[in-house]
Amino acid sequence: MTRSGGARPKTFVFDLDGVVYLAGEAVPGAGPTLAGLKDDGHQILFATNNSSRALCAVEDAIAERTGFVPEAGSVITSGMAAAMVLKDDAERCLVLGSTELEDTLREAGIGVTGDPYDATALVVGLDRRLSYERLTAAVLAVNHGARFFATNTDPTFPTPTGKHPGGGAIAAAVERATGRSPIVCGKPFPPMLAMIRSKIDNDDVWMIGDRPDTDLALAAAAGWKKILVLTGVTSEGDPIPEELQPDHTIASIADLPALLNRQPAPTGR
User: Fold this and answer.
1) Does residue 176 carry a pLDDT above 70?
2) Helices H, strands E: what count in the chain?
């Protein structure tokens, strides 16, 4: 693969679900595209609002599905962003989310409790164990003074069978029942943006995502180039607010090298 888009190195920030892979399968061409970008000297980062898996599991999923092995420190999850926000406050967190999200918080030194009356914070993410009892405990915690955090507000996530309810749908239930809005940690909000910025090596940053309200909104807030792919939750012709219009729309990640090769070479830094 020839140097894409001129000699100037770029940083590419990829969403995962609906961009790099869909459920258990890679988006066709994802692995070769990622490998080619890395071989060309570009930095590859991944930023996902999915908080339901541990960092090592996300890294393994990328490698197993695409054949591309992410570099250490190149993957950021919304669960990690939540841990960053909470780690200095000696919180006791009730988690309405996965056991892996609980582990992410514990690994950051944050206390986790199952008692809604003892909790000083509630953290909500995608919860495949969701039940009325678990939702009730979350509502009780907030109503008894616990601070309310959401790893993300994504209402859905893409799957081969269609859109499934996301962590944002669960957070919305707590918000509706308590009348309290969460502090959101994932894209496009400041905690996730700060974590990504701390890892960026270049001043030419491209965000590649499938969701305008998270991926493209993050890029807009940061002043990065916005690239929309159509392999996830957004289809061609879907309405997009003017301020979130992508710089480019491509069918899939496999079309990114061709897009780069159409870009004019830089005239200088």
Assistant:
1) yes
2) 9, 15
